[in-house]
Amino acid sequence: MSLAWERGYRRRRGLPNWRLVRYADDFVVLVNGTRQDTEAVREDVSRVLKPLGLNLSEAKTQITNLADGIDFLGFHIQWRRKKGTEKWHVCTFISRRPIRQLKTKIRALTRRQSQQDLQSVLRRINQILRGWSAYFQHAVAKNQFSALANFVWWRLIRMLKVRHHWTWKDIRRRFVTPQGHWRPISADGTDLFDLQTVAVTRYRRRGAKIPSPWPTIQPTTVSVESRMR
């Protein structure tokens, strides 16, 4: 089922197609067919895994339509119609679970009674935000990045208000320029990383031939000598 002409051959005859996408021990089977075809593939998967001593998890294994969306590797993949047109696209969003996990980490670092110095807090937050945004920057995530940047900023502001007994007037005096622009939260040269500055590239054109990212390695001949005593 991996060759395009084979899938096209079956599609012209009204037969179902399937495709396996996997990463480590997580996988999803994409089926172009009916629900009965999908259930049959599920039974085939169970039979393949059984000799290996593995079973499909009833809690994590489900059959769903792509219009309802699926969660895979932190992404929510869903089939949606473009507004104002009749064109349908497969869109990739950020799942709710990674967002909850990110907020939990930020809350743990910005407790109002925390005595950790601000520079250490900013460094750790920046590490988390840079890694998180690099992973999700190819999803439909621009609005989500903006909302999370606002969440992180307010968490830090509330922490500083409690720590230094600042009022809102004190906050504006320290973080607003004479021109009325907000300065980034910083400490000893370390600025808070702004998630809104991350470039989101949702769709990338794929040429006729995709170059391999791996260097070409010349094959070598290995001679193995077996000795018996």
Automatic annotation (TrEMBL):
SUPFAM superfamilies: DNA/RNA polymerases (SSF56672)
Listed PANTHER family: NUCLEAR INTRON MATURASE 1, MITOCHONDRIAL-RELATED (PTHR34047), PROTEIN YKFC (PTHR34047:SF8)
PROSITE patterns named among the record's database cross-references: RT_POL (PS50878)
Signal peptide interval: none
Pfam families cross-referenced by the UniProt entry: GIIM (PF08388), RVT_1 (PF00078)
Record-given protein name: Group II intron maturase-specific domain-containing protein
Superkingdom field: Bacteria
Lineage of the species this protein comes from: Bacteria, Bacillati, Actinomycetota, Actinomycetes, Kitasatosporales
Annotated Reverse transcriptase domain residues: 1-77
